[in-house]
Amino acid sequence: MNKELRALTDRLRCEAVVEGERAVEECERLARTAGPEELAGVLSDPGRPLWARELAAYRLGTAKDPRAFETLVLFLNHRDPQRCATAAQALAALGDPRTARAAAALATNELRVAYAGQAVRLLTTLRAPESVPALIATLERRLVRNDPYRNVALACVAGLGVLGDRRGAPRPPGRRTAPGPWRRRLRRARPHPGPAQPPPRGTAQEGGRDRGLRPGPGREPAASRGRDRRSTGPRRAVRRTHGGPFPSHDGPFP
Predict the structure, then answer these.
(1) Against a cut of 0.70, is the pTM above it?
(2) Which of 7, 88, 115, 156 could staple 139 via S-S, CB 3.0–4.6 A?
(3) C-alpha–C-alpha distance, residues 244 and 225, integer Å
(4) Closest Cα to residue 83, out of 93, 97, 96, 73?
């Protein structure tokens, strides 16, 4: 018994304990000594518990028995992530030519997208012709704002990187191209900044009329500009000649 089968048996034994001691003995027997025909009979018997069907399907799948294909596909999209991971491992070892199409159908099913992570990872492992189109189609639907299935989108991105799809490669330096639909969708999916805060009181509005408030960058106070205007021009020449802006008069006014 290898390490993966031992870990699976330990997990399923915990489920069998609820049914009693005979169920625990049955779990050990299916994991160790049951033959292919008996395991196939477990899959076809509708009265068998879920843990027995999972154990039988895993053993048949790793033995490359095609009779485990349908059951493993059902477990690949199960709500329990551990069952999904076990089914993906067995399907990868099974080598059935129908596996890639089934995984692509499960990965692109929008109604079951919450459980599509293992199907996406299985497509990456298989490297089948259906892998890249299915990953791109799944990722395209996840490029929306506040999408709750970010783990599926990250699995698609990691899978495309492993598969070496050039549509995810960066642009060559110095080459300018118009932004494609992927770049535009990524920009729209980014979180937008919060609403703009109003400027604090006592500050001058940018582009508005200066009313003597606190100057902004590159602006001078209104008082200093007024002094400069009073000290330049014709009045400055008159002040130098007569000591003031107008000629003085010593005698009485008429």
Answers:
(1) no
(2) 156
(3) 21
(4) 73
Give the residue among 42, 53, 44 at the shortest CA–CA distance from 16: 53
Domains along the sequence of the chain with CATH: 1-96 (1.25.10), 97-167 (no CATH)
3-state SS, residue 128:
coil
Task: Locate 57 and state its tokens.
Answer: 């399907």
- Per-residue confidence (pLDDT) for residue 207, from 0 to 100: 47
Residue 106 to residue 125: CA distance in whole angstroms: 15
Q: What is the pLDDT of residue 220?
A: 53
254's CB contacts (< 8 A; 6+ apart) are none
d(C-alpha 50, C-alpha 94), whole Å: 20
DSSP 163-215: HT-GGGSPPPTT------HHHHHHHHHSPPPPPPPPPPTTBPPTTS---SSB-
Residue 100 confidence (pLDDT): 96
pLDDT value of residue 210: 45
Q: CB of 73 within 8 A of CB of 91?
A: yes
What is residue 34's predicted lDDT score, i.e. its pLDDT?
87
Low-confidence ranges of the chain (pLDDT < 50): 177-178, 204-212, 228, 231, 238, 242, 254
Enclosing H/E stretch for 21:
helix 21-32
- Report, in angstroms and rounded to the nearest whole number, the Rg of the chain calculated over CA atoms: 38
